[in-house]
Amino acid sequence: MRRVRNKIALITGAGSGVGRATALLFAREGASVVLIGRRLSPLVRLSQEITKSKGIAFPIPGDITDPESVNQIVGSVIKRFKRVDILINNAGIAGKAVQVHETTDEMWNELLDVNLTGAFRMIRAVLPHFIEKGKGVIVNVSSIAGLVGMNHMAAYSVAKGGMIALTRCVAVEYGHLGIRCNCICPGTIETKMTRDYLSYPGRYQGISSLYPMKRIANPEEIAQGILYLASDESSFVTGTVLTIDGGYTAQ
Question: In this prediction, what percent of the chain has a pLDDT beyond 90?
Fold first, then answer.
């Protein structure tokens, strides 16, 4: 269907997992994808893979915890493509599993800076360009950890809950300007970030048993939800939270 045909889409955390799956899907659906991440090599490999499939990709290494780097990223995109249409805030880290009283300031600050403040910086940087052209779409990747309490994940959960609140604030503040902002909340996903955690004997089965569908998601399933919210198929959808969790939060 080419649902994002001729769109310029920025994807943070594009080098692996959900970001990589989203980039591949968006490229197949006609978008020029801007691949953003801290390490250049996986972005280059992904860009080459997309190019071989006749897609358009532009790798940009950058650090969303650095305001100057964020401004440089967006500036490079505007210089090359003259505009930006879609922002996917996917970059994130899980951090160490600890109880609240064991969480240091450094742990807390790092989780919030990467998982929440980084998304805020990206949104702040693209909004003037969206406002100028009277249109733009933002999709934030939160988590079910932002909807329910999670043991040993306070900083992560707070950051992801903040992502939901940020989504709603942007939606109500800029909706009249033609700018949409939505959020997805995935459950557990098989990615590089979760691979070690899930590799312990019996761990995958134990986690899967918590979900009514008795399995966990793959990155491509999450990417499909992002695509819907980024496309014109969701043209009257803003400020919403799309939960993609195999029924976990329905229990």
Answer: 91
Give the C-alpha separation, 113 to 162, whole Å. 11
Q: Is 211 a catalytic residue?
A: no
**How high is the mean pLDDT of the chain?**
95
The structure tokens 């970001």 sit at 19
Give 44-78 as a DSSP string: HHHHHHHHHTT-EEEEEE--TT-HHHHHHHHHHHH
**pTM of this prediction?**
0.95
At a CB cut-off of 8 Å and minimum separation 6, what does 235 contact?
180
Three-state DSSP state, 231: coil
- Is the domain 8-240 a CATH 2.60.40.10 member? no
Fill in the amino acid letter for 64: I
Using one digit for the tens of pLDDT, what is the confidence trace for 89-128?
999 998 899 999 999 999 999 999 999 999 999 999 999 9
Q: Where are the domains of the chain?
A: 8-240
Residue 1 pLDDT > 70: no
Q: What is the pLDDT of residues 226-241, one digit of tens each?
A: 999 999 999 999 999 9
CA–CA separation, 12 and 18 (whole Å): 10
Give the Cα separation of 120 and 12 in Å (integer): 12
**Rounded-to-integer distance, Cα 164 and Cα 174, Å:** 16
| Angle between the N-to-C axes of helices 118-133 and 154-174, in degrees from 0 to 180, rounded to the nearest 10 | 10
Which of 156, 174, 211, 248 is flagged as catalytic?
Answer: 156
